[in-house]
Specification:
With 445 residues, this protein is an alpha/beta fold. 28% of the residues lie in helices and 22% in strands. It has a domain of 311 residues: Alpha-Beta Barrel (TIM Barrel), CATH 3.20.20. It contains 13 helices and 19 strands. It starts with a strand and ends in a 13-residue tail after the last strand. This is Dihydroorotase.
Length: 445
């Protein structure tokens, strides 16, 4: 095992920044101090005042394996993730086949054990008819349950209200949900198709997948969670109106209902459809500037608990189809940290708060063992960031298998220079260690 001494770093942890050293031995953070003397067989990395943060824990990604590997796979996307400062991901069940049985779920874990550059877990997918299988999910070894209450693929739309209540009543695991009301979306879609056919201008996407569709579904899920006592986590909140459904008057560890916001809903607004087109077509939709600002407000005042990417790549050929045939989703893991650091530079959010939302809070929310903080005895998932090294996103620097990014042409002020996963230097100024893989997450439940 390699040992590293990271010196002269601006260490960001638990709402403080201090200049110091970190000693990494046998995958673990061995010591944190203002000054640590080097010993033999320790590789010294002089941070020269760079920020050292705990690795970003991304609680929602779609890495497309198995079955959709023409778009992406666990190896390519986790490689892009560690280059972007993401050391841990939780992947969704809507692959082909879908992870809706324990055997299919374990098949994905086996792929990740061989191929993933980052630490990993997967969610079990609930359907209208797999409750018995769902209840076999091991809470110590699996991140949680994922339910699509809208915008599902295959048979994963859980639209039987009796079954939905049974799921909420039967498991103490975190139930993460995609909330959009399908009846509202279908009605809106048909109205626009009647006018435009399949080639609906993409600027109408946030009107079709409307504030009403999101709020109806989110409020319904929260009402059911309160009725049943379920532990509910609402993914990718996209409207200012929904933020009023969440509370900030108790610690995160005590919340029964939590919320996530994604990078794209904080960065883009409906003003960007004219330039970006279907490249920023996501579900839920990127909405108005008022919604974007409302999401920022809720993130900063702790009604929204975590930041994520909802990384969901498609090929350029797929994305350039007409509206009704262009899939929703886009690649984000490589540039998520630098995008948020741009907002730090702009004064929108502090780096301490960003680390709380990207690293600390996902670890608390999912009860991940010994990750998400820079603490002695914790796994050394660490990221060094040079805030004085600009980078422009271009095709020749993109690591996603799909080969494109909604941030193409954007210049970020910061660059991730090194990423450690379990104490191993996996990414170092553009070079990768391809021999060491990430670990399966365990949970303190």
């Amino acid at each position: 095992m390699s040992s590293y001494l990271i010196k002269n770093a601006k260490i960001v942890n638990e709402n403080t920044i201090f200049l110091g050293d970190v000693l990494v031995e046998n995958e673990i953070i061995k010591e944190i101090s203002s000054e640590i003397k080097a010993t033999e067989n320790v590789e010294i990395i002089d941070a020269n005042g760079k920020y050292l943060i705990p690795g970003f824990i991304d609680d929602q990604v779609h890495f497309r394996e198995p079955g959709l590997t023409h778009k992406a796979n666990i190896a390519t996307e986790s490689r892009a993730a560690v280059a972007g400062g993401i050391t841990t991901f939780i992947e969704m069940p809507n692959t082909v086949p879908q992870a809706t049985t324990q055997n299919l779920l374990e098949d994905k874990f086996k792929i990740a054990a061989n191929d993933s550059y980052a630490n990993y877990s997967f969610m079990f997918g609930g359907t209208n008819d797999n409750l018995e299988e769902l209840l076999k999910t091991d809470p110590k070894k699996v991140a949680g349950i994922k339910l699509f209450l809208g915008s599902s693929t295959g048979n994963m739309l859980v639209d039987n209200e009796e079954i939905l209540e049974k799921i909420f009543s039967s498991t103490k695991m975190i139930i993460s949900v995609h909330c959009e009301d399908e009846a509202t979306i279908r009605k809106n879609t048909e109205e626009f198709k009647a006018k435009y056919g399949d080639d609906i201008p993409v600027k109408y996407h946030p009107i079709i997948r409307s504030e009403e569709a999101c709020y109806l579904s989110s409020s319904k899920a929260i009402k059911l969670a309160k009725k049943t006592g379920a532990r509910l986590h609402i993914f990718h909140v996209s409207t200012a109106k929904e933020t009023a459904l969440f509370r900030n008057d108790i610690p995160l560890k005590d919340k029964q209902i939590t919320a996530e916001v994604c990078i794209h809903h904080l960065w883009f607004s409906d003003k960007d459809y004219e330039e970006k087109g279907t490249h920023i077509k996501w579900n839920p939709a990127v909405k108005t500037e008022k919604d974007r600002l409302g999401l920022w407000k809720a993130l900063l005042d702790d009604r929204i608990d975590v930041l994520a990417t909802d990384h969901a790549p498609h090929t350029l050929e797929e994305k350039t189809n007409v509206y009704t045939k262009a899939p929703s989703g886009g690649p984000l893991v490589q540039h998520a940290v630098t995008a948020i650091l741009e907002k730090v530079k702009e004064g929108v959010i502090s780096i301490e708060k960003a680390v709380e939302k990207m690293s600390h809070n996902p670890a608390i929310l999912f009860q991940i063992e010994k990750r998400g903080f820079i603490k002695e005895g914790y796994f050394a998932d660490l990221v060094l960031i040079d805030t004085n090294k600009p980078q422009t996103v271009s095709k020749d620097t993109i690591l996603y298998k799909c080969g494109w990014s909604p941030f193409e042409g954007t210049t970020f002020s910061s660059t991730v220079t090194q990423t450690f996963v379990n104490g191993n230097l996996i990414y170092n100024n553009g070079l990768f260690n391809d021999k060491i893989k990430g670990k399966r997450l365990t949970f303190n439940r």
